[in-house]
Protein 1
Amino acid sequence: MKIKEAKLSSREHIVKVTNRVMKATLALQLMMAQVDDVEDADLTPIEQLKQQQKLIDDVINYITDTLRLNQKEQEKLDDLEFGETVEIANNVILRVQGLSDEDIAKLNREAEQADDKSEAE
């Protein structure tokens, strides 16, 4: 499949959805879910910082490995805000799981509309 991430480069990244890629995708999703679960837990500040650092590393490594980024693209990724990095990771995850760019755009629009409604209330 072809995945294009304009924030990183103008080229299309060819991603073959191998077992390795699927395992990495599921591992990252699990890690992100665990971080969300643990946010309310009683962690020491040091444990929280280590967890945040691991999450950043895991997200960057997932994008780098899955899209097979070159050095210039890796540098661009390192210079992005973390929110933008998570958006790219989420997009790659959804594409690997079989959603099209159009499906993802629709999901994003629906999420934005739901956010707008909850902010208005």
Protein 2
Amino acid sequence: MPRMGSSIERISLTVNGTSYALGPLEGLDDLREQILRAARATGGFLNVTADGGQRLSFFVTSATAIVISVSTVALHADTADGTPARCGEDAFSGYEDDDIPFDII
């Protein structure tokens, strides 16, 4: 029986036409809540973490155009990041014996 592949949701935020891929720990419900709270208060900050770890803070008003998009990314069963494993290669195959960049214990 074939195994079901895993997937993760990736969230992107577009603020006034500029898009940002968000970090994996950003939650959709939290983003919505922060945006609504800021707009209802006639201004407030939306704090998020970008995919590369950069912390971003947007001042949000009722005139700020924000789009939240969520895409489901299928992960390959062989690796945690979804990159298929290369057949016939292991983690050390690209290095010569004396060239491995770390110690093997």
